[in-house]
Amino acid sequence: MKSDALRLFFALDCPPALAEVIVAWRDSLHLSGRPVATANLHLTLAFLGQQPRARVPELLGLAARLQVPAFELRLDRLVRRRNGLVYLAPSQPIEGLLNLAQALRDALLAAGIGLENRPFLAHLSLLRHCPKLPPDVIPSFDWPATNFALYASEQGPHGTQYRQLQQWPLLRND
Ligand code: ATP
Ligand code: MG
After folding, report:
1. I need a surface site. Which of 70, 96, 99, 132 has the fewest CB within 10 A?
2. Helix, coil or strand: residue 61
3. Which structural domains are found in the chain, ordered by start?
4. Do the Cβ atoms of 137 and 144 come closer than 8 Å?
């Protein structure tokens, strides 16, 4: 029987061509650790955790009503946390990204779905269990963020995989 709950999150999906470039760059650094699969590269906007399946239509509705402009995301920092997670991040706050994460948080709260209290941290995970980074690595990747999506995180035969439930465009200026 299918489980009644899904592990859900909203995220920006890394465009496939950019994901390939980022992964080729990551692999060229020859870091130790467990690499994130190319298809799994994403930037989480709001993590909802376990939610009843019956809640999905409401989530699709609230996301469809968001009116948030598209933006450019420059990833120019490589960070390693103490737990060994290595990720790309922007060195400057990206207003468009913060607006989108906040708009989602507000809409979820209005629907009675509170997120954890910790502040939003923009990060694109690349590798886990990495013991050390080489010094002076300065990445520079430009990601035109034009849409966002709702995902279910599931356990597949090759580990965690994300199933996109739906995506929505961000507003274009032109
Ligand atoms: P795994 O945990 O199986 O190694 P994963 O972390 O990519 O893989 P999930 O734990 O399902 O998969 O997480 C999905 C996304 O949500 C990831 O971007 C993850 O960083 C983020 N996430 C997970 N837990 C939280 C949390 N408590 N708060 C904020 N974001 C979270
Ligand atoms: Mg996790």
Report:
1. 132
2. helix
3. 5-169 (3.90.1140.10)
4. no
